[in-house]
Amino acid sequence: MPGPAPSLDHAIALHQAGQLDAAAAAYDAILAADPAAAVALQYRGVIALQQGDAAAARSFLEAALPLPPGDAGLLGNLG
């Protein structure tokens, strides 16, 4: 049985430290537990952009769009 999902704060700390693979795995674990976690979806999309995967980034960011309506940061990340 898998353990609890990492905290969003932990995932963000990994991301800010440049540990993109570890942060992506942490966001993925959060999303496995809560597929509607808007912040995790957004930052997972940002990581996909940072790793050069525009299609995956768009998918993550578009999935987050209806969750926090009018989120300026999310809309900016989507372009």
Descriptive overview:
By secondary structure, the chain is mainly alpha-helical. The protein is built from five helices and no strands. The longest helix has 14 residues, at 20-33. It starts with 7 loop residues before the first helix and ends with a helix. The mean pLDDT is 86.
Count every beta strand, where a strand is a DSSP E run of 2 or more residues.
0
Which structural class do you get from the secondary structure elements?
mainly alpha
Cα-to-Cα separation, first versus last residue = 39 Å
Radius of gyration: 12 Å
The helix count comes to: 5
Helix content: 55-70%
Q: What is the mean pLDDT?
A: 86
Low-confidence stretches: none
Estimate what percentage of residues fall within beta strands. Answer: under 5%
Shape: globular
Largest sheet: none
Order of helices and strands: HHHHH
Q: From the structure provided, what is the oligomeric state, counting identical versus distinct chains?
A: single chain
Outline of this structure?
By secondary structure, the chain is mostly helical. It contains five helices and no strands. The longest helix is centred in the middle third of the chain and has 14 residues.
Architecture blueprint of SSEs:
Blueprint: H1 8-16, H2 20-33, H3 38-50, H4 54-64, H5 72-78
Helix pairs in contact: 1-2, 1-3, 2-3, 3-4, 4-5
Quick tags:
79 residues; mainly alpha; 0% strand
